[in-house]
Amino acid sequence: LLTAISIERCVSILCSSIRRPQHLSSVVCVLLWALSIAVIAAVTSLCLFHEHEHCRVALISMYILNFLIFAPLMVISTTTLFIKVHCGSQQHQPRRLHITIFLIVPLFLLLALPLSIWNFLQQFSYAIVSSQVVFLLACINSSINPFIYFLVGSCRRHCSLVSFKVVFQRVFEE
């Protein structure tokens, strides 16, 4: 979903003069959820029934899908969005959703992606760091996202503490 959001925001900024279908974002998210569920169901069923070689191939395929499609698309779209917003008109300050994406994507790449890399390398019995390190990084990534939403949602011209409900409404109202 982070990839879909990054791409959608990038396309909406780059093609602001082109009218896109009203439910495009919803359709893309539903398709991504369906793909995720299908992949996880396939991996789970192969691994639960002790089909070791098939399980290994499914896991490797899932990690390759993550590395070669989702992560690069997220990086490219976020970088493009950053350049467009940064080099664009100085009159418009980046919106809260853009700031949120600019914070979450790099943190995801630094903190959550190492777990996928570690899991991928485990399929070949190769590990360069301990599992505790990558699990700690993934936990930090999961824990830091609500704080990012809170800070970006509550800081306009001055920071004030407001309820989480108001923060989430502000961040996602765009």
Automatic annotation (TrEMBL):
The chain crosses the membrane at residues 24-43, 63-85, 97-121, 133-152. The keyword Cytoplasm does not apply. It comes from the Eukaryota. One of its GO terms (molecular function) is G protein-coupled receptor activity. The keyword Transmembrane helix applies. It is a multi-pass membrane protein. It is found in: Membrane. GO terms for cellular component: plasma membrane. Residues 1-149 form the G-protein coupled receptors family 1 profile domain. InterPro entries: GPCR_Rhodpsn, GPCR_Rhodpsn_7TM, MRGPCRFAMILY. Keywords: G-protein coupled receptor, Membrane, Receptor, Transducer, Transmembrane, Transmembrane helix. This is Mas-related G-protein coupled receptor member H. It comes from Antrostomus carolinensis.
